[in-house]
## 1
Amino acid sequence: PSLSTLYTVIGIDLTGCTDTATVQVDLFPQPFIQTSPDVYAFYGDDIQLSASSTTSGPYIWSPAEYLSCVSCLSPIANPNQNTTYTVTYTDENGCSASDNVHIYYDPIIYVPNTFTPDGNEFNNGFQVIAHNIESFELLIFNRWGELIYTMTSLTDYWDGSYNGLKCQDGTYVWKLDYTDFLGNNYTQTGHVNLIR
């Protein structure tokens, strides 16, 4: 049955006499398990997974690759690609439940839209902040479409100059090409305002 149910059976013999008997069929409660939320991670991070339930019982995580422990409540994961881990829990009645947690290594790119290379200690360089990318190239153009700066390293930045001279205030267009660790290629364009 889908619910706890009391069943009754009635027996009648050849002379018409009857008798009844009952049996109660109770259901075990459905097991419950919940994992930590999905994670957007950076390559190389140790990711703490977790699972919990309202009753006691063993937990098994799969796949076992890149996990510190497959039978722990809170193993550490460090996969090298997007991965879905499934944890299965078995309660004291032998009933099982499972849940998933997904780990994503999507490329994360932040390109600021303004900088102020005025010589003070704040915001003097235009720099890309990125994670989970294999390579990138950012090209900066002036208003006439002339290439004035190229970045190929995340540690590189533009100081607002061209050929040793300070560029004038204005809007500069950039084009960004980058590749993530899975070999996917992306292109973005935008602009940055230079204000002294």
Note: The CA atoms of residues 113 and 192 lie 4 Å apart.
## 2
Amino acid sequence: MRKLIFAILCVGLIFTNTVFATASTHIWAPSTDIQPFNLWHITWDGYLPAQLDKDAQGNGTRLAPVTNLGITTGILPFQKVQMELGIDHKAGLSTADKYPMYVNAKVGIPEGTFGKHFPAIAAGGFDFGTKADVTDYNVLYAKVAKTFPTIGKISVGYFSGNKKLLLNKNGEKDNAGPMVAWERTMPEISDKLWLCVDYMGTKSAYGTLNLGFSWKCADNISILCGYDIVNDKDLTGVENCVTVQADIDLRCFGCK
């Protein structure tokens, strides 16, 4: 699968048009953005614990990073209703690494579709794994978003996942909670700069407060840097992580 993804990336780079689309997530939580039809969005995300793991390792070393390599593409040729499908390869998750493939999907209506005050609406799911009660987190969510002058875009939503896997530090189910985000492009500084704060509730492994920015290096390439503060460090073993995410959008010549 890694070789296949690498081959697709290489071929796509040869046939890239200058097309840019925002990522399907904010920093951590899913957004209302959906990839356009026939556009391939490739992302590599890395998460590195910011603190030394003195308690668990006993020697001041760091925990291994978690990485995610994903491909998402739009599958509906419509403007008012859009849908995307994607796959992810995740590593650094201990025993779950034996089953590294995950599926995600999202359907939604873009902001302004039925009038200038109409919000973006999206519903979908992610982390549909291949091993029961090991990687099948099966997170479902719904979210709405609206852009306000000067302030930026505000998103609110709710999610729910597998109650056998989304647990708190006491082993009790904590599988549902809110999602909130603020994001804004900063034309006062540069149209290439984007800022974001997003939050995902619960004290399960998904619960985080995330702060970050991205820089659009080219029309179809962006780099994101962020800081993730976990809601319950006793569950995860770390207080926070540093994340670096690279995104590239590809479309072959002749595609419409």
Note: The first helix runs from residue 2 to 14.
